[in-house]
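testing teh design pipeline on a random one, pls ignore if ur not involved
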């Protein structure tokens, strides 16, 4: 047989494969066609058996022609199968996609109601000249209690209330008051800061969450009096709750302030008549405050003969519940159910 004739035959076979494959509609048909060319009894395989009979010098050239033809057929079969798959996919999409449907907007996140209220509170104090200070949530026993003049046997140090990390050494801060200590150790008076942040206690019921938020305030300078404290807090309450909300200062006790006062506002719900929210008293407690105890000033190296100061700590969750009337349980604020949080767009 003439080597050139075999080469021409191979050319024609590959051309014929190309022509036939384009008409096929399934992958199986394509594979069958491929086998009828390249399989055990395929046309090319049979032709290849003649290779041995060719004169030695032409074998190389004809061998190459075989490889090319097989390569062409294999590639054409692969391309044809890819084409089928793509066509099926786009037909599927055509059948199942309705381009006239409205798009789905991505769900937008928004700030948590507690965060919103905390920012509002901080804004009011910043407008009165307070700087913002922050402290760690993991505190030392010394800053959370010792330097705040808590005696060693004070009940708040008990395992009942405090989440200790290493008893007597480190703990989750039970209030933001240690930021007072950190600030006073860091710089001399005049000091005028607010410190927002999370605090932790071993409490868990409808009105108490084991984690909640406070905003601490501290002002230390020459000549600071209780009247300044009262003025600042009353201005604050008017800004947050409106001018006509009545408030009262009630004597109280904290180890780190002397004298101390808790501040109540007239119950938002019953306007003082007495209801469930205020346990019938007509008043709601929203913050603790007082004049910084001279022992505390001494403990951080500030001369109590020269300087005086006031401090306060308010519960953000409490104010949020009053702000957004109808939040019946503090848990709602921490469960983070998106349906609940949706209601606090701003
Ligand atoms: N740290 C006190 C508390 O958590 C509140 C407070 C702060 C009282 C500052 C007086 C002065 O209850």
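output:
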């Amino acid at each position: 047989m003439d080597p050139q004739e075999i080469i021409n035959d191979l050319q024609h076979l590959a051309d014929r494969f190309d022509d036939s494959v384009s008409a096929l509609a399934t992958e199986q048909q394509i594979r069958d066609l491929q086998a009828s060319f390249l399989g055990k009894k395929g046309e090319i395989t049979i032709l290849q058996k003649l290779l041995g009979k060719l004169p030695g010098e032409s074998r190389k050239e004809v061998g190459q022609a075989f490889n090319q033809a097989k390569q062409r057929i294999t590639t054409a079969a692969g391309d044809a199968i890819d084409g089928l798959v793509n066509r099926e996919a786009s037909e599927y999409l055509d059948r199942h996609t309705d381009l006239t449907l409205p798009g789905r907007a991505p769900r937008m996140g928004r700030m948590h109601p507690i965060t919103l209220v905390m920012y509002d509170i901080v804004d009011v104090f910043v407008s009165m000249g307070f700087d913002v200070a922050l402290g760690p949530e993991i505190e030392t026993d010394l800053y959370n209690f010792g330097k705040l003049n808590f005696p060693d046997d004070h009940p708040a140090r008990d395992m009942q209330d405090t989440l200790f990390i290493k008893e007597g050494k480190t703990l989750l801060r039970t209030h933001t008051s240690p930021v007072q200590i950190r600030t006073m150790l860091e710089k001399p008076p005049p000091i005028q800061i607010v410190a927002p942040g999370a605090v932790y206690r071993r409490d868990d019921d409808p009105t108490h969450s084991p984690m909640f938020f406070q905003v601490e305030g501290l002002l230390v300078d020459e000549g600071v009096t209780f009247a300044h404290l009262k003025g600042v807090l009353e201005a604050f309450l008017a800004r947050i709750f409106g001018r006509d909300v009545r408030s009262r200062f009630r004597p109280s006790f904290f180890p780190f302030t002397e004298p101390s006062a808790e501040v109540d506002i007239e119950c938002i719900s019953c306007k003082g008549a007495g209801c469930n929210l205020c346990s019938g008293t007509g008043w709601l407690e929203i913050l603790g405050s007082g004049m910084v105890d001279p022992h505390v000033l001494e403990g951080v190296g500030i001369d109590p003969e020269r300087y005086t100061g006031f401090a306060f700590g308010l519960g953000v969750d409490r104010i949020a519940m009053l702000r957004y009337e109808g939040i019946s349980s503090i848990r709602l604020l921490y469960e983070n159910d998106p349906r609940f949080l949706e209601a606090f767009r701003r």
